[in-house]
C-alpha cells in the first residue's frame, strides 16, 4: 500500500474532520490532494502531533479529530500513547503510517523494521481500539470502523517507503496555523 | 509536607482568574498542591503527562481550539521540553504560559537538582523566553495575569519561575 493511495481513498472522510498531520511526506501528500482549512500540518516538533491532537480533542469534544502520525514521529513520543489512553478522547482517531523508515532524511530504518509493533505498544498503553492493516481495502474498512466506533483508536497502516519528490509546499506554516485556528473558532458542533 | 498550600491556592486561583481551563503537569514536589487543585476543581481540566514536552503539544492544540491553558513543570521538565517549545510553540507562534519550579537554586538540599538550577535562567534567555520570578504572595496574581497578557500579545511562550520563597515553607 502506498500512503498517497491510502490518503486518496479516505480523503472524502478527512475533508469532514479536523486533521493534524506530522511533517514531511504525510503533510506534502495530503496537500497534494487538496489543502483544506481544517487540515493542520505540524511541520516539526516530531512526536507532538498526537499530543496536539489530544489538546484539540479535549478542548472541543464535539469535533471529530484525526491525527496522521508516522512511525518515526510516534517512536519519539511513545509516552504520549499512555496519555492518549489515559484521557481516551472518544473523538480522536490516531492513524500511524508506518513505512519502517525515516524517509525524508535518507530512509534509515526505524525500530518497526526490526519488529517493534506500534499497534501492540498502543494496545499495551491502554488505547482501547488498535489494529495493523497492510492493504488499501483493509485500511479503508478499518478507518471507517474507527470513525463509526466513536472511541479512541490507533490504526497502524503499513505503507511502502516512498514519498513525494519535495516536502516544501507553497503553504506557509503560519498561514496554515492561523487559517486552521480561525476554522476551529468559527466551527460549531459536529463536523461529521 | 512543607510545600505552601496557601500560596499554591493563590497561584491556582490566579490561573483560573485568567481563564485558564486546561492545565498540563508532571508531578514534582513543589507542584503537589497545584496538581491536586487542577484535578479537583471542576473549572479546570488536568492533563497528566508522561513527559513534559507533550504538554507543549497539548497547549498548542488547546490554543488552536480556543481554550486557554497553562503548563506546570519542574525546570528539568522545561529542559526536556525545549525542542517542542522551539519547533512547535515558537515556530507556530503559540502563546504558552509555563509555570516552572526553579529547583536547584539557593536553598536546594537535593544534590541532583543543582545542575538544572544553574542553567534554567540562561536557557530561557537563550531561547528569548521572557521570564519573571514568582517569589511573594502579593505579586502572584498580577504577574500571572501579565505573563498571560504578554504570551498572547507576543504569541510566544513566557515563563514564570516559581521560587523557593513562595513554594516552600521550611526554608
What is the compact description of this entry?
Chain A has 192 residues and is α/β, with parallel strands linked by helices. Chain A is built from 8 helices and 8 strands; from the N terminus they run αβαβαβααβββαβαβα.
Describe the structure in your own words.
- The complex is a heterodimer of chains A (192) and B (171).
- Chain A has helices at 3-14, 25-33, 49-59, 71-75, 78-87, 118-125, 136-149, 173-186; strands at 18-21, 39-41, 65-70, 92-98, 101-102, 108-109, 129-133, 153-158.
- Chain A is of the alpha/beta class and 192 residues long.
- Chain A is 43% helix and 18% strand.
- Chain A has one domain (3-186): 3-Layer(aba) Sandwich (Rossmann fold).
- Chain B has a single domain (5-167), classed as Rossmann fold (3-Layer(aba) Sandwich).
- In chain B, helix 1 (5-17) packs across helix 2, helix 1 packs parallel to helix 7 (137-154) and helix 3 packs parallel to helix 5 (82-90).
- Chain B is globular and about 40 Å long.
- The relative contact order of chain B is 0.18.
- The mean pLDDT of chain B is 97.
- The A-B interface holds A 20, 40, 42-45, 47-60, 63, 77, 79-80, 82-83, 86-87, 173-174, 177, 180-181, 184-185 and B 21-22, 45, 47-51, 53-67, 69, 83-84, 87-88, 91-93.
Any chance you could write out the topology, listing elements then pairs?
The complex is a heterodimer of chains A (192) and B (171).
Chain A: H1 3-14, E1 18-21, H2 25-33, E2 39-41, H3 49-59, E3 65-70, H4 71-75, H5 78-87, E4 92-98, E5 101-102, E6 108-109, H6 118-125, E7 129-133, H7 136-149, E8 153-158, H8 173-186
Parallel strand pairs in A: 1-2, 1-3, 3-4, 4-8, 7-8
Antiparallel strand pairs in A: 5-6
Helix pairs in contact in A: 1-2, 1-7, 3-5
Chain B: H1 5-17, E1 22-25, H2 32-40, E2 45-48, H3 52-64, E3 69-74, H4 75-80, H5 82-90, E4 96-101, H6 114-126, E5 131-134, H7 137-154, E6 157-162, H8 164-167
Parallel strand pairs in B: 1-2, 1-3, 3-4, 4-6, 5-6
